[in-house]
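Review box. Two proteins, two foldings.
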Amino acid sequence: MSTLLLKNIRCLATFDDEQRELEGAWLLIRDRVIDSIGAADDIPPAYADRVIDLSNHIALPGLVNTHHHMFQSLTRVVAQESELFDWLNTLYPIWSGLRGEDLYIAAKLAMAELLLSGCTTASDHHYIFPNDVRLEDEIRAAAEMGIRFHAARGSMSLGESAGGTPPDRLVEREPDIMRDTQRLIETWHDPAPHAMLRIVVAPCSPFSVTVDLMRDAAALARDMGVQLHTHLAENDKDVTYSLERFGLRPGQYVEDVGWLGDDVWHAHCVKLNDEEVQLFGRTGTGVCHCPSSNMRLASGIAPIRQLLDKRVKVGLGVDGSASNDSGHLLGEARQALLLSRAPGDPSALSAREALRMATRGGAAVLGRDDIGQIAPGKSADIVAFRLDGVGMAGAQHDPVAGLVFCQPPAVDLSIINGAIVIEDGKLLSADLPALVEKHNQLSAQLIRGERR
């Protein structure tokens, strides 16, 4: 059994049940699990296979990204002045040329960006499968990058000719969707504690799949013991579509099709009303907040304060790299804080609440109690940021808040499942310059339409 000791930690923000923040702390990892932690006056272990001094660092649980579309890193800064539906209509024809290699490289690039921002667990919602694309393209990328991964098997079955939004050529037959989703769960899903890979059932949205698929997907997920995820109430047009097609608001619709409960989380939820917020709180339904994407597409401001006050599980997501154009999860925590305050309330969200959404909140949304906090027995997912850089100068009196209020730094040390993935700010699991060069080549080909 290997051991790793992190010692002299300037500030250890545990985000445990007591919300402890320890100075001069130490932390012992045994294999892939946190063995023990101690404050400055506690005696650390006399021996470990490796010791790392973090006297100039703040350490905290690895951040959890609960919503992404990694393939979209290939098509950044497209449709720069469009709202959601026009943005989708511009990009669908480009995405129709996606190949398996594109998804694999895009996922590795997106994962690298997340890792360098302090993320250690990510869920990706992949919903288009043209040409030779398979979810295994992302699963292989995650294994190589060393990130803890929740692969959400998305789908679109309702094309334009049937009243949906995606082009008919990008939708799948519903029997094929269900068959492949079941295959992926049976092949790849790991329900055990500390699992590095789980599968999620994730029809894309109410405006791109049928009511039958939503109900069948919920039944399949519950029969096989996996989670459910989709987009919901993202902007005003989204709500209008729900009212016109189903005669129901988004919250009423997901209640009707069985998409409420502690095994469900919805992305965005910008336009939930008070009754829907209360409904989510009563049923244990989770929400992923994507502030940068919501601002980029002018979707609005999600009711995060109300959701938290009603005890709704709320995590953070960078969303797709074509609607956010970046994948810095710590930066997303900062955006969440600032956007919540923008309407005029400087106490709408605190720095520690923003970080809690990025750690404990995200873990809860993904249905996990083994990540998102630093405590004995939890998964050894720990990140550390340097405190002696220019961006944190003047914030030494409260480094926890400084991580959110100040310029978001890159992570200096990242440990996932007990393994060091980033050390001294360098990503160890990929040749980053070569990855970026290959990604840019594929991006240019895709945007130029050479695959169509």
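Next protein.
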Amino acid sequence: MLPRKRVGSPADLDALIVMLCADQSHFVNGAVIAADDGFSA
């Protein structure tokens, strides 16, 4: 049932965390970012 055929690991969120910590993400406020491998689409 998993599109990527594997369970995610914490390292899979690294890029998201870096993006949210960057100065360029100052306009992101109150967003819900689903890390569900596309199940919510």
